[in-house]
Specification:
With 428 residues, the protein is mainly alpha-helical. Helices cover 50% and strands 7% of the residues. It contains 17 helices and six strands. The strands form two sheets. Strands 1-2-3 form a three-stranded antiparallel β-sheet. The chain has a three-stranded antiparallel β-sheet with strand order 4-5-6. A hairpin with a 5-residue loop joins strand 2 and strand 3. Helix 5 crosses helix 6, helix 9 packs antiparallel against helix 10 and helix 9 crosses helix 17. The longest helix has 26 residues. The N and C termini lie far apart (63 Å). 39% of the residues are buried. It binds acetyl coenzyme *A.
Length: 428
């Protein structure tokens, strides 16, 4: 197999090396292209641009494969432990018992926020979008732990990761309490990560919210399935910000902002909106499918299709069965689930969807599970951020540890006016 590629331009030939990954993906190393030829590459949306080499997550979108540090995502279904997966992503291997216990203790010890941060929550209007509060509070958190702005060894990195992963959960729960005018509930050190989150969300000072093991497992799995997805928009944002040597807190706060958009983490909200509209409007699933295929409207079957997966998104497959189990356990009869099932059944045998390889994605069922747990729609993307945080930390660390990493600074093809002159105000 060739290990380089030739480019011929204006009678000259240039040679560029091919880089091959462990799963035999190949890319052209064009880092010398501009100095050799004066040319740059143009790739809006970066669909064909590799920004780095990474050993964290592998995706094969045609085969529907997703692996974290080499482990197929399906293997976490029977052991849904988000904390273990977080450590795996960040440090590259499953933790042994001592490492897992140490990390769990650090998470437990860091669940509280500095009391002064409560005043910051009070400063937000109750109409503030939860993702805006989450991002702002992660940066605020950094101000209280500025000794962790510089992370030059793994011990400090683990401490910073534990603080962020533990405290984002408290920030999320306090955000929900703030916008709903509810009293803040502090973490309970006896509870594990996901049960503690639901306790801080839903307990009252006079009544503890009890969490069933099956629900705790389901939330672990939702977080695990969102934990990393290689160079997606928010992760690339974290790497971009981190490339300037910005600290971990600032880089992750930027990741939350990128995730906020409806084309990224906000899509699970859109699925629920679609199902609610179909339900409220008394429209049939058949009618909606027909509308979603037309090009003269903006209607799409939300939760279907993916830029990378041209096969069943493996995360959607797992969440479908979790959804059935959670709704059964909570005895929720949700008419939206019936609509979702019908839409899926129709789309999977419809020539339009089959020909375009449009399958359910991770957002198709995750919203329904969270809704059954009592999570309001405006918190869905915040839960996505909790899940994605270990991935962001892993990528920040990988880049930080790489001696060859450089500040990310793309180029452009300029299309503005050519040389012209300043005109004084009285002559314009
Ligand atoms: N419903 C109906 N038609 C669709 C859908 C859909 N959900 N998705 C794609 N198509 C059609 C397009 O109209 C286009 O048809 P054409 O070839 O006749 O013009 C064809 O399929 C290809 O679509 P693109 O938009 O070019 O595919 P792309 O890979 O760029 O987009 C995307 C992927 C944005 C996810 C798209 O499938 C979509 O909008 N899906 C619905 C929104 C959604 O669920 N987003 C969540 C993604 S998962 C995540 O981000 C966590």
């Amino acid at each position: 197999m060739a290990d380089s590629i030739q480019l011929s331009l204006d009678g000259k030939t240039y040679q560029y090396p091919l880089v091959t990954g462990t799963e035999h993906e190949r890319g052209i190393d064009i880092s010398r292209l501009r100095s050799d030829t004066g040319l740059i590459t143009l790739d809006p949306g970066y669909g064909n641009t590799g920004s780095c080499q990474s050993a964290i997550t592998y995706i094969d979108g045609d085969k529907g494969i997703l692996r974290y540090r080499g482990i197929p995502i399906e293997e976490f279904a029977n052991h849904p432990n988000f904390i273990e997966v977080a450590w795996l992503l960040i440090f590259g291997r499953l933790p042994n018992k001592a490492e897992k216990d140490r990390f769990s203790d650090r998470l437990t010890g860091n669940a509280h926020l500095h009391e002064a941060m409560k005043h910051t929550f009070e400063g937000f209007p109750i109409t503030a979008p939860p993702m805006a509060i989450t991002s702002a509070m992660i940066n605020t958190l950094g101000c209280f732990h500025s000794e962790l702005y510089s992370l030059n060894d793994e011990v400090l990195l683990e401490e910073a990761a534990a603080r962020l992963i533990s405290k984002i959960r408290t920030i999320a729960a306090f955000t929900y309490r703030r916008v709903n005018g509810l009293p803040y509930i502090y973490a309970d050190p006896k509870l594990r990560y996901c049960a503690n989150f639901l306790h801080m969300m839903f307990s009252m000072p006079y009544q503890q919210h009890l969490v069933d093991q099956e629900i705790e497992d389901a939330l672990n799995l939702i977080f695990i399935l969102h934990a990393d997805h290689e160079q997606n928009c928010s992760t690339s944002t974290v790497r971009m910000v981190g490339s300037s040597k910005a600290n971990l807190f600032a880089s992750c706060a930027a990741g939350v902002c990128a995730l906020w958009g409806p084309l990224h983490g906000g899509a699970n909200v859109e699925v629920l909106d679609m199902l609610e509209k179909i339900h409220a409007g008394g429209m049939t699933a058949e009618k909606y499918i027909e509308l979603s295929k037309k090009k003269d409207n903006n209607i799409r079957l939300m939760g279907f299709g993916h830029r990378v997966y041209k096969n069943y998104d493996p995360r959607a497959k797992m969440l479908q069965s979790v959804c059935e189990r959670v709704l059964k356990k909570l005895n929720v009869k949700d008419p939206l689930l019936d609509i979702a099932r019908k839409l899926e059944e129709l789309a999977l045998k419809d020539e339009y969807f089959v020909a375009r390889k449009l399958y359910p994605n991770v957002d198709f069922y995750s919203g329904m599970i969270m809704r059954a747990m009592g999570i309001p729609t405006n918190m869905f993307t915040v839960l996505f951020a909790i899940g994605r945080l270990p991935g962001w930390i892993a990528h920040w660390k990988e880049q930080h540890d790489d001696p060859a990493s450089k500040i990310a600074r793309p180029r452009q093809i300029y299309t503005g006016p050519v040389d012209r002159h300043y005109v004084p105000l009285d002559q314009r």
